[in-house]
Amino acid sequence: MQYDIVIIGGGVVGLATAYKLKETKPELSIALLEKENELAKHQTGNNSGVIHSGIYYKPGSLKAKNCINGYKLLLDFCDREKILYELCGKIIVATREDELERLEALYERGLQNGLTEIKKISAAEIKEYEPHANGIAGIWVPYTGIIDYKDVCEKYAELFTNKYKGDIFLNQKVIDIKPNTGNCTIITKDKTFNAKLVINTAGLHSDQIALLTRKIDVRIIPFRGEYYEVKKEKHNLVKNLIYPVPDPAFPFLGVHFTRRLKGGIEAGPNAVFAFKKEGYKKTDINLKEMSSALSWPGFQKVMWKYWQMGMGEYYRSFNKSAFTKALQRLLPDINKADLIPGGAGVRAQACTRDGALIDDFLIYEDPQIINVLNAPSPAATASLSIGTTISEMAISRFS
């Protein structure tokens, strides 16, 4: 089957890219390949459903630019397509004196990113937003919202296929890619596709897809984030979203409380190395994937640098009391009995050979292939902006 463009990966970034490509250049023939029997099954389908404001990201970074632009695009898209969401706002709270400097830096970063409506709040004012929350100071972020990104993906897919006549193929795991002059052959378990351009948005497996055609100096390391659900009778403890001050040395936001759009309150996640790229359970192990990650020199350096933090995350993973204690920093009234096991997600974290956990989006362009090698949170919020960026890269080759 011959196409102008083949996109590998049916998560929110791949689907947004497919949609923006067809919206901009409907005459292009485009296929999207997804290895699962449904779309948005992994990172997109297991995230916390938060619409991020952009307060965390370094001004001028791809994350900051795409989150802020993507935020506006997402809300406009949802309004136009009648997708349910809610801008409920959140608080970020400091619970210790040594967090106040980081809280102030976060506030300044938010202002630099154009979030003019954020405001500092005192310990007393924290109680006005979240009566049961604990903190000595905080930031109110009214831009933050909640959504179900599977709903968003379904609409991207519907517009791509029904309105613009794009093709989606499920159960198509890519086994090999063979670049030829002016064309690429994409081989799956039971089909062969040909395309002038391939776009790799395979998330957790994006490094494996990239390695089919080029050398790369990064690897995707899977980190599992485990959640608890707050029992229904204790939902009154959380009005909306309560976040801690993040540690700038580690690309995770720390355990927090999130109200879900379609009901329920999540507590978490932690962040532990997963022994399988799609390892949603503690018992999930893939020896090949695990050994690949553990043998990567960059990840060995990460483990050495963050071993104490890593051991603490694993301890909380297996010890509910320790997990509860971490949550009680934000919400003292929460008890172990108030928490029931919830779901888990696995984050695709790009790690360089020299041991850096990449904290920005990473895209490699080759003549016939565009590899999206790092698109962590806030990729869902920023999906239309990222999709626009990738589609512009692609369309420039067809001008």
Fraction of residues in β-strands: 25-35%
Proper CATH architecture of the domain at 2-46 and 150-217 and 360-395: 3-Layer(bba) Sandwich
Any idea what the shape is?
globular
Number of helices: 11
Main sheet summary: 9 strands, mixed
The gyration radius over C-alpha positions equals 21 Å
> Which residue ranges are poorly predicted, with pLDDT under 50 across at least 5 consecutive positions?
none
Structure keywords:
399 residues; alpha+beta; FAD/NAD(P)-binding domain; eight-stranded mixed beta sheet
Question: What's the structural blueprint in terms of helices and strands?
Answer:
Blueprint: E1 2-8, H1 12-24, E2 30-33, E3 50-51, H2 62-81, E4 85-86, E5 90-94, H3 100-112, E6 119-122, H4 123-129, E7 137-141, E8 145-147, H5 149-163, E9 167-169, E10 174-180, E11 183-188, E12 192-200, H6 206-210, E13 218-230, E14 241-244, E15 256-259, E16 265-268, E17 272-273, H7 287-294, H8 297-305, H9 307-318, H10 320-328, E18 339-352, E19 362-365, E20 369-374, H11 383-395
Parallel strand pairs: 1-2, 1-12, 2-9, 5-14, 12-20
Antiparallel strand pairs: 3-8, 4-8, 5-7, 6-7, 10-11, 11-12, 13-16, 13-17, 13-18, 14-15, 15-16, 19-20
Helix pairs in contact: 1-5, 1-11, 2-11, 9-10
Describe the structure.
This protein has 399 residues and is α+β, with helices and mostly antiparallel strands. The protein has a domain at 2-46 and 150-217 and 360-395: 3-Layer(bba) Sandwich (FAD/NAD(P)-binding domain), CATH 3.50.50. The chain contains eleven helices and 20 strands. Strands 5, 6, 7, 13, 14, 15, 16, 17 and 18 form a nine-stranded mixed β-sheet that branches. It is globular, with a radius of gyration of 21 Å.
